[in-house]
Write a structure and sequence with these properties.
It is a single chain. With 122 residues, this protein is an alpha+beta fold. The protein has six helices and five strands; from the N terminus they run H-E-H-H-H-H-E-E-E-E-H. A five-stranded antiparallel sheet has the order 1-2-3-4-5, with helices on both faces. Strand 4 and strand 5 form a beta hairpin. Helix 2 packs antiparallel against helix 3. The two termini are 18 Å apart.
Length: 122
């Protein structure tokens, strides 16, 4: 049911299926964030997130995220990838629940939310 609701929402906001390149990019981006989480690299995560999130990315928060995502694979997190009408990439988990939206600015892609601080592992 959630998958249907997400699909309807994406249609209403003008989303369309992303290309295979978009899906590969999304998988690589989430993989980069998972590596940074496991390494405890706050700076690397800051590079991949919107600046407004930087204050929330602390070593203590990262330590909690590291425990939660220690064995999580990219395939456990990335199901579908859609582009919204603004060109952002909306990444959903395999069960259809939204994971994160990637936004582009100044030639860089960044996560709109710190999904790894709030999301339970898959």
């Amino acid at each position: 049911m959630r998958s249907v609701a997400l699909a309807c929402l994406l249609i209403l906001v003008g989303a369309h299926t992303a290309s295979a390149d978009d899906r590969a990019f999304a998988r690589a981006f989430i993989g980069r964030q998972l590596r940074a989480i496991r390494a405890g690299d706050v700076h690397e995560l800051q590079v991949t997130c919107e600046p407004r999130l930087h204050a929330r990315l602390t070593p203590a928060q990262l330590a909690r995220a590291r425990k939660r995502f220690a064995t999580t694979k990219v395939d456990d997190l990335v199901g579908s990838v859609e582009r919204d009408k603004r060109g952002n990439l909306v990444i959903a988990r395999p069960d259809g629940t939204p994971l994160v939206m990637l936004v582009e600015g100044d030639g860089l892609w960044r996560a709109w939310t710190a999904w790894f601080l709030a999301a339970p592992p898959a």
